[in-house]
Amino acid sequence: MTRPRPRAVFWAGIAAILTLLLAGFGGRLHPAGDSLAVARIWLVVAGLIWIGAFVLRHAVRLRAALSLGAVLLAIAATTSAGWLQVAGRAVGPTVYQKNMSFRLRDTTALANDILALRPDIVTLQEIDDDNASLRQQISAALPSWHRCVSDTVGGEAIATHWPVLDRACGPGAAALRVQSPAGPLWIVSVHLHWPWPARQARQVADLLPWLETLDRPVIVAGDFNMVPWSWAVRSIARATGTARAGAPLHTFRVRSVAPVAIDNILLPGGTGRAATRPPLGSDHWGLVVTATEE
């Protein structure tokens, strides 16, 4: 049996990687595209390693390798918009986003972290009767509270120190309208299902019309179970007149190994200074963003 030539193997591998990368831009056409978008960085890294391995074996010309490497880096650049933001002076609210985990029972460490940071807004997911004690622990600093029960694990909640004007519940979302120093503001805490082949695309389709009914300005934060460069996240941003703020910092590890940035905070101005917080008993890191000048 004739063994395939190294050059043929190289180009077959490149074709497979590029096909998966390009399909990852097709979330608008089919939700599988968003599932592949999650792996965009990993596929780029795999492609660069693949190219390097065959260059070392002298199985591919250096000029071709450099050209392909440039293509892969250009694709990787589509994930880096948040890293390119220049954080200016803080001008807006600080938002603390946290998927608590329905397994969390002792919320003391999380409460202490929230109180130490003194955010204006806290958005929570997977909150249930077993971990709802957090409300009492932070109520002195953040007395305004709204919680919704949804078909995701647990429910969604919002805490803030601003006066409440209105409340609403949507598909996997809680919304609280408050009187902020800049005027009325809707705050949305969202928890999306896992992506295709799970139900995320269907949930987003139900969620978008509901989000469009909210008067702007709007802040959306939550566990999107999806990366910020996906069609799902960008669709929610368009529906609310927001943009993801801050660098795409990882907040979860798939299979406890692969880091992904699936917790997002969307602000009207789209610029902010982002930082992560420790898991504190959850399987998600906390995400904190302070709105800044452009």
Outline the structure in words:
The chain has 294 residues and is an alpha+beta fold. It has 2 domains: 6-79, no CATH class; 86-292, Deoxyribonuclease I, Chain A (4-Layer Sandwich). It has 8 helices and 14 strands. It has helices spanning 6-23, 32-37, 40-56, 62-76, 108-117, 134-138, 200-212, 231-240, and strands at residues 90-99, 121-127, 144-149, 155-160, 164-170, 173-180, 183-191, 218-223, 243-244, 252-254, 258-260, 263-267, 272-277, 286-292. The strands form 3 sheets. The protein has a 6-stranded mixed β-sheet with strand order 3-4-2-1-14-13, with no helix packed on it. Strands 5-6-7-8-12-9 form a 6-stranded mixed β-sheet, with helices on one face. Strands 10-11 form a two-stranded antiparallel ribbon. Helix 1 (6-23) runs antiparallel to helix 3 (40-56), helix 3 runs antiparallel to helix 4 (62-76) and helix 7 runs parallel beside helix 8. The model has no long low-confidence stretch (mean pLDDT 92).
Summary, kept brief:
This protein is of the alpha+beta class.
